[in-house]
Every structure is written in structure tokens, then in C-alpha cells.
Amino acid sequence: MSEAGIAVELRGARKRYGTKTALDGVDLAVEPGTFCVLLGPSGSGKTTLLRCLAGIERLTEGRIVLGDRLVADGPSHEPPERRNLAMVFQDYALWPHLTAARNVEFAVGRLHLGRGEAAARVEGMLGRVGLAHLAHRYPNELSGGEQQRVALARALVGGTGLLLFDEPLSNLDADLRERMRIEIGTLTRDAGTTAVYITHDQAEAFALADVVGVLRDGRLVQFGPPEEIYARPATPFVARFTGLAGELPVEVLGGAEGHGPSGQPLMPVRPAAGCGDGPERATLLATAMGAAHGIPGAGTVLVRPAGVQLLPAGHPHGHVDAAVLDTAYRGRGYDHALELGPGLQLVGIHDERRWARGDRVRVRLAPAACLLFAGAERLGAATAPTVAALSG
Ligand code: ADP
Ligand code: MG
Questions:
Q1: How far away, in angstroms, is 140 Cα from ligand 2 center?
Q2: What does the DSSP assignment read for 110-159?
Q3: Does ligand 1 have an atom closer than 6 angstroms to the CB of 45?
Q4: CATH 3.40.50.300 residue window(s) in the chain
Q5: Local confidence band at 291 (pLDDT 50, 70, 90 cut-offs)
Q6: I want to staple 141 with a disulfide (CB 3.0 to 4.6 A). Which of 137, 213, 252, 282 is the partner?
Q7: What's the topology of domain 8-231?
Q8: Ligand 2 center to 360 CA (angstroms)
Q9: What is the pLDDT of residues 256-272, one digit of tens each?
Q10: Rounded Cα–Cα distance for residues 177 and 170 (Å)
Q11: Are the beta carbons of 248 and 75 closer than 8 angstroms?
């Protein structure tokens, strides 16, 4: 095993493919032994970044430092085998003509161990990923999950200071994905290795990460612990990409009325006309993000599903009225979709009880779940026509 993970640093990393800029000046620093997840939609540059870290792809500009070594300075760089790292791919990338044990053994070669010691190490690693009994199978005799375990064992067995993961769970079934996610998280942390893991799946990112970086169009738009990104997204893009119930156009009524748990001002807002129209539109408090404080005027509240509570119609402690559109049994309670106005919805609203489709409810919105951004933010495509109608 590695003694410790290595530090990872990118400075001004840029990658162009012809006229296409895949990485647009990324600065990133990952502390040794940290599990870093880079999260972004398809095409945001995740794979390109990982391949540049691995040395499979050359930077156009910028630098990469791994541990105490400058491994890339513009397009001149060290090849993958000289970077003290191992990689786990989405499609496993095992040698089809080698057994599980031989696939893993391949990665032990770099350690120059005696034959007995190498075999013991391979066996131990296969045991740790729960495959001791399948060591002599070939990849085509293993399920997808088993193949990914072999790939994980292969990545871990060499004791490198850095592990790179390119969406390793995306070809697995849901229940297997969860178990594999736990194994990746625990085995990587046990090894003390630094990890850079890329995914487009927000839940996966938050579950695994010590620190999350959000990528958009080849840029790193936010970097921090998952809790911070959830509570204080830097931009509406980050908020939308990390799980929203929906978006409300609001009017900001005045100055701050106190502060949230992490110090942001709480602003009094009123949902715009046509949005959750009840007998009266209640004032509610929303947490100001970025520069969204001080100035009364139009704003947008991006609503996190946690912190939205369903109350019976007419309940005095609610904020906006809605109709139940849909209800989905989740084992642990129910998720509800609500309609607040024409085309304006809140989805993924959890409750232990099932509210019937068509029920009128009153929705209570906790300040921490209401992320206020300044201006009548361009809303998602699905709700845009409604917003135009509301402001008209
Ligand atoms: P992600 O992994 O986040 O989906 P990628 O890093 O694969 O994104 O791609 C980032 C952008 O760079 C995309 O617009 C993609 O089309 C482009 N791109 C990636 N690889 C190449 C390539 N070899 N040639 C041209 N364009 C590429
Ligand atoms: Mg990719």
C-alpha cells in the first residue's frame, strides 16, 4: 500500500481540440489523501480533465503537479506510467485473455516483488473486494459488478498515491451501484490514497466526496465540501445541478431579517402573482446567495427539496398553496410533485404520508431550502413560458 496519497494540482489547465475548448483554464488543488469528486453535465470536460491528469491526453496550456513532480508543462509531459497513479474506467478495461487474478497481478509488476509475495498481495486484494473465490475466472465469466471489482483491485494493488475514477458506476444496476460506491469509498480511504473521481450524478458525488468540484463548459465553477455546495451554491447553475424541487419567481420585499446558520442574510420575499395563489400570498424568508441581498426587486428562489413541508389546505403556517400532481411510493415514505400555478412545479417533496393526487395542500418553505438569487433569473426551459406569462 502507498504510505500516503499525493497532492494534485492543476494550474491554468487548458485543452483545445481544434477550435473546441474542452478545458478552459482550470485551477484545482486536491490535498493528499482527499477524495475529490468532479461533478458536471455531459460535455463539461470531466473526462478530458481526468485524461490529462492520467497523462493519456496532453494539455494545450497550463501545468499539472502530482506530489512533488511537475508532470505536465503545456504539451510536454510525463507518460502515465511515470505518474504514480492508477485508473478505474466506466467500461472496466480488463484484459479479456487474462483471469481476474492475472489482471490484478499485472498491476503488481511495477513493485518488483518476488513471485510468492506478488501472489499473496494479489490474493489479499481480491479478498478485500470479495472476489477470492472468482480469481480464476476470465472477465467474460464475471458480471459487470464483479468485473468492476477486479478493476478496483487492480487499481488499488499497486499502492499508487493517486486513483482516478471515470464514472465507474454508470454501467451497473442501481442496487449494485450503491454497494460498489461504498466499497470504492472505504477501500480508497483505507489505502490513504488521493482520489479524483468524475461523475455527472449529484447524489453519487455528494455521497462519496470529501470535496466536490463543479465543472461547467470546461471551467471549475465551485469547489468545496458537499455540504457547502448544497447550502451555498455559487451560481444558479450549481444549484440546479445539485438537486432542486423547483424555482419560484419572487419579489424581494426589503432588507435582511436575520441570518441563516452559515451567516447568509435571510430576505423577506413574496412569490410572484400567479405562483401558488392562495387567499393571500404569504411572505416567506429566503436565504440570500451571492449578491442577492439589500436590493428590493425581482428575484428567483431556487428550492431545495429538503425543507419543503406539506400541510393541509388553509393551514396557518404554510406559505403557498398547491395541488398534488403526483405521488410516488419510495419505501421510506412518498415523494410528491406539486403544481403551484400553471406550469410551475415542485417535485421530489418527501412526506411520510401519501397525499392524494388532486389534493389541495399548503406548502411550508424553510429559509434554508429557499436559495435566493438576484434578478428574474432565466428559468429552466420547462418553466420559461409560465414565467413570461406571470410577468406579463
Ligand atoms: P465529459 O466527460 O464531461 O462529458 P469530455 O471531457 O468528454 O466531457 O468533453 C468535453 C468537450 O470536449 C465536449 O464538448 C467534447 O465534445 C469535446 N471533446 C472531447 N474529446 C474530444 C476529441 N478527442 N476531439 C474533439 N472534441 C473532443
Ligand atoms: Mg466523460
A1: 24
A2: GG---HHHHHHHHHHHHHHTT-GGGTT--GGGS-HHHHHHHHHHHHHHT-
A3: yes
A4: 8-231
A5: low
A6: 137
A7: Rossmann fold (3.40.50)
A8: 43
A9: 888 988 788 999 999 88
A10: 8
A11: no
